[in-house]
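Chain A, query sequence.
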Amino acid sequence: MATPGTILAIDTCEGSCSAALVVGERVLAKRSEAIGRGHAERLLPMIDEMFAEAGADYGDVSRIAVTIGPGTFTGLRIGLSVARGLGLALSKPVVGLVSLQVLAAQAGAPEGGRVHTVLMGRGGQAFYQAFTATGDALPESTGEPRGMDAADIQAEIDAKPGVVIGSGAALFGDDAAVATIDPVVLAHLAASLDPAAYPPEPAYFRAADAVKAKALLPIEQ
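Chain A, predicted structure.
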């Protein structure tokens, strides 16, 4: 059965390859596999499997949502390339959201609560961004995403305690309840956003941050 108005959500920023087909509050199909590598080989077959399961096809897609980083070099490129390619082929808008913000929306923090989102990096560093929870809307960032040493992130957490989430939570002895992107949440967040304000462009650091975290940049500049 055709399902016009479908949102296709894609996340390949870290070790998971995830996607979902969502119409309003209905989840037509969802996949999430911790593959580590091999996003290029798995993502499109995964999407085809979801369409088959949902009894839908690419023509039913109304928009595409994709995480734009930070994340691994190869995984991020694959997700963005597929999302952009499908958007162009289908003449549908593509909404790009920062993975740290999507994770913060999954934290379940009370409105106004602090959320510290940390993604594992290299050499004792991690990607970090803090947010204020806003209920069902996009969490409000309190600063730009940065590549930081674990000690500096710990100081941020100590200064304003809150929920610590993401794959880097282990650096601080936390067993994060939220460690990976839920593509259904990604779809819901992107449903009403203006694609012009949230383009599918890779998330870069400001120049000063890029110098410090050069090894962590998801895409070469």
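The longest strand covers residues 26-34. The CA atoms of residues 16 and 34 lie 4 Å apart.
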